[in-house]
Amino acid sequence: MMNSFGIAHTNMPNPRLVRGFVVLCLVIFTLCSPVASANPDPELAALLKKTVNQASSFEDKYDAEVWLVDMSQRLSRFVKDPKERLTMLRQVHRLATAHDLQPSLVLAVMEVESHFDRFAVSRVGAQGVMQVMPFWKNEIGRPEDNLTDIETNITYGVTILKHYLDREKGRWPEALARYNGSYGSYRYSTKVMDAWQKRWK
């Protein structure tokens, strides 16, 4: 069907325009919401732009913007600093994707393990956002690595998690139990899957 200008008419909106509009709304909501500040923070806006441009694990910039802004809102209950949130999310997405893991599931693991506290230490000595045991540093010949560094910790964590997932042939409950050192029990696995379903999926 043609309109008066001879252009084909369709009732279906352009998907790219729709995504662009959604991104714009999300960015405005995030930067202007009372949770952040009364006025848009130009420094944060610049950081978001930089983060999106550096997010090479995304297929396009719109996907990066939508995911980062959406997940930043969800993560705000755990990490108050918006700059820290965006940096953490970009690293999670990049490192999880590189290991063929869903970033949302890695976020669920981080929530259950440490509530995103980079300085968390368990009663058995596991450290950081993904609660990595320090002995791994010596095992791979990198004793100088700092497990309180978020990127380092996530790199170790996703590598270990992917190893156990492959070992269990894609069975998440078993892989998560091995990651937690509680193989034979599904209590930890259930916690992670619940967090994933409720907050990150």
From TrEMBL:
It comes from Sessilibacter corallicola. The keyword Oxidoreductase does not apply. The keyword Signal applies. This is Lytic transglycosylase domain-containing protein. InterPro entries: Lysozyme-like_dom_sf, Transglycosylase_SLT_dom_1. PANTHER family: MEMBRANE-BOUND LYTIC MUREIN TRANSGLYCOSYLASE C, SOLUBLE LYTIC MUREIN TRANSGLYCOSYLASE-RELATED. Residues 1-38 form the signal peptide. Belongs to the transglycosylase Slt family. Residues 96-185 form the Transglycosylase SLT domain. Keywords: Signal.
